[in-house]
Structure formats: structure tokens, C-alpha cells
Amino acid sequence: MQLSRDEYRKYIRAKRQQLSESFQQQASQELISQFSLLPEFNTSQHIALYLSVDGELNTTPLIQWLWQQGKQTYLPVIHPFSKGHLLFLNYTSTTPMTSNRYGILEPKLSKNEIRPINTLDLICTPLVGFDDRGHRLGMGGGYYDRTLQPWFTKGCGPKPIGLAHDCQHTKRLPIESWDVPLPKIVTPSQIWQWESTNNPAIIPRKR
């Protein structure tokens, strides 16, 4: 029987939360190795990421490695006035942090640290699950769907790349009419790549 989207969220989150600390540490290092193989890594200077929660693949080592490579990194902040939207603020080792409404750490809002979304090069997106067609299952808030709308509809703006544990992959997710596949998803073991976000039937190439 096909699971619902909410059932998939519960199932995959449970698998993710059961991963051991040592496994998480190893996976975070393997993520760096895979990320370094991306052609986009060499051509991107302004890279948005996120701080991991709820058993997500730990992004902190990747962020620290990007600093060492001279890249500028940014974290999402829930927009204080535009409901359901995100801002992206510059993030360094000394950035003042605060907890948002979901208990997730984010940079303390400062208009001087905001980077316009259309001037970012990459947006690394969190996800709960993904499938063979590149469809991303998020937490259901729609924040990243709204953020990435220009890319999905016009092919402009920062390129989205999903980050996930290998165990978050499933063969086929239930999708809605507004769902658009990601062009790439990086896991600790491989890079999933689809030739076109408009062709859900294409088979991904694994690097």
C-alpha cells in the first residue's frame, strides 16, 4: 500500500533519528568528499546551507570546510513580515544566533547581513525524503518551495541542491501538482543528478 506524504515523513524521520553519533560523524565527512566533486562548487562563492536538526545529515563540518575554501556561507531566517518566506543571512563562526519558532538556531536578524536571494549561487536544501525522480519531500511548511519558485518556473536564481542521508531515499514518493524535482541531491555515498527538472521519468546518473 502506498504511504501518504505524512506517513513517509514519519517513517523516514524515524530511520534518520536512529542513526548513531559515530555514523553521523562519518556521514558528514563523506558529504564533504561528495560536495567537493560538484562542478558547482568551483564556480560558486555564495552558498546557502542550513543547520541540521532532527537527525538530518550534519552540515556543520561542511560549512566549516567551505570557510576553509574561502567560500561565503548563509543560513535561512524566517521572514518576520512575509509569512512563509525565508531570508538568508551571512553566517560566520562569530554570528550571533537565536532560536526561531521551531526551536532551530538561526542568525539574529540584521538587515546589514541579509544577502538577496537572487545573488546567491547555490541553495543547499534540507529534505525529509527523495525519490528516483528527484522529488523532494519537505516538512510541509513550503518555505523552500516558495524560495526556489524562480528556479523552478524560470530557471533563474540560485541553483538548489538537496542534501540527505542515503536512508532518506525511497523509490517513489507521492507527489502533488506543484512538486518539481531537484536537479541534484548529494548524499554521503553519491551525487544523484537529473538531466532536467521537467522530466520526472529520467533515470538519475550516480557519480
Automatic annotation (TrEMBL):
InterPro entries: FTHF_cligase, FTHF_cligase-like_sf, NagB/RpiA_transferase-like. Keywords: ATP-binding, Ligase, Magnesium, Metal-binding, Nucleotide-binding. Pfam families: 5-FTHF_cyc-lig. Its EC number is 6.3.3.2. It catalyses: (6S)-5-formyl-5,6,7,8-tetrahydrofolate + ATP = (6R)-5,10-methenyltetrahydrofolate + ADP + phosphate. Its cofactor is Mg(2+). One of its GO terms (molecular function) is 5-formyltetrahydrofolate cyclo-ligase activity. Substrate binds at L51, E56. It comes from the Bacteria. One of its GO terms (biological process) is folic acid-containing compound biosynthetic process. ATP binds at R136, L137, G138, M139, G140, G141, G142, Y143, Y144. The keyword Signal does not apply. Belongs to the 5-formyltetrahydrofolate cyclo-ligase family. This is 5-formyltetrahydrofolate cyclo-ligase.
